[in-house]
Give the backbone structure.
Amino acid sequence: MTQTPTKHTLLLLAALLFTSSLAVAMWFVRYAYTGTIHFVFLLWNLFLAWLPVLFALLARRKGASRLGRWIWGGLWLLFFPNAPYLLTDLLHLGQIGRVPIWYDLIMLITFALAGLFVGFASLFWLHDLVSRSWNRLAGWLFVLLTLGLSSFGVYIGRFLRWNSWDLLFNPTILLRDLADHLLVRSQLMETAVVTGLLTAVFIGSYFIIFALPPQLHEKREIGDQRLEIRGQSPISSLHWRR
């Protein structure tokens, strides 16, 4: 089942563009103040974070074939870790030049949140697509599997310095390097702990940001309907208990 962009989708895109634009603006203010291009990699990382949004919208577009959805979905999964990866750029915080450290902290947090928001928005859209195509259980299994794999992808990118496209153009070298890394017990433990912690953080964040609000809205609508059936206005029911 495919969908055309709804009002909710367009509003969400506008909010995502605002957050990302704010992050980019903060970088250019820093550049104008210092004349240096420190943290320029944040712009590239944010661009990569937006690619899953494009692939998710293409997978959901009206008239998309089943094969097309699988192709766009595969590309989405491949590039999805680039979105939460921006969280790890907080490691670069430090006193650099004449810029106050508090400014760099706010800028890095803004980039991190922008990446997390665009990534989770694209996940939310495909979560909805999978749930509609199969069922709600399949949708949640898709979310959990995706967040687990993306956490592992973030680890590979941050610690082993591999990129998403390397899986397409250098798969043999990447897998060999990964195998050599995991054969060392201490590195295997590090991989498991980092991946597990990131997965837990991502699951909790996704549930709070995207999964919980719709459920609360549905419960509120059900409550309002029950009040209307009883002949009581939802607004008049809001009063202080004495």
Remarks:
- The longest helix spans residues 185-229.
- The mean pLDDT is 87.
